[in-house]
């Protein structure tokens, strides 16, 4: 079967002190992010998608919504697909980090998760979650998982035996494909396909200025 792993679309920034009821930042998509999410409908048209999954975080749920509606499939939300920042009280989109959070930005550029993350626990949670999706869809089928850059990266690092926690730059709504054999073999077919969303990524760069 094929896993299609999608990074969420562009979310809003949540300043420190502006939190949801649970006390953690959970940003929604921007208007541009909603337009990015809509490109997944045509990008994955004609593929034999049998299941659609997302993390429980709003930016992932909203990114999946147009595709799920177009396919007529009920999304499955999994808390174990949440990003490493799920409990953080604020959220700065990656493209704004060089200006607003340079220390975290330098760690990400070096392929490292933020210092407060329990990397082994995060890796174990993510790998188990994505493997559970693969196990639920045997045969010639496709499952789409909308998650986060850290989630997708640490799964790829696990598959490829890469020591860096964040080996790849992943764009908003970028698509990564992994082929999963019945015998347990996992083959990374592509990383960060962005042809479907390239013009809208250019708009992010323009906003960044």
UniProtKB/TrEMBL annotation:
Transmembrane segments: none annotated. InterPro entries: His_Pase_superF_clade-1, His_PPase_superfam, PGM_Phosphatase. SMART domains: PGAM. It holds the Pfam family His_Phos_1. Gene3D superfamilies: Phosphoglycerate mutase-like. It comes from the Bacteria. PANTHER family: BROAD-SPECIFICITY PHOSPHATASE YOR283W-RELATED (PTHR48100), GLUCOSYL-3-PHOSPHOGLYCERATE PHOSPHATASE (PTHR48100:SF62). This is Histidine phosphatase family protein. It comes from Pseudonocardia benzenivorans.
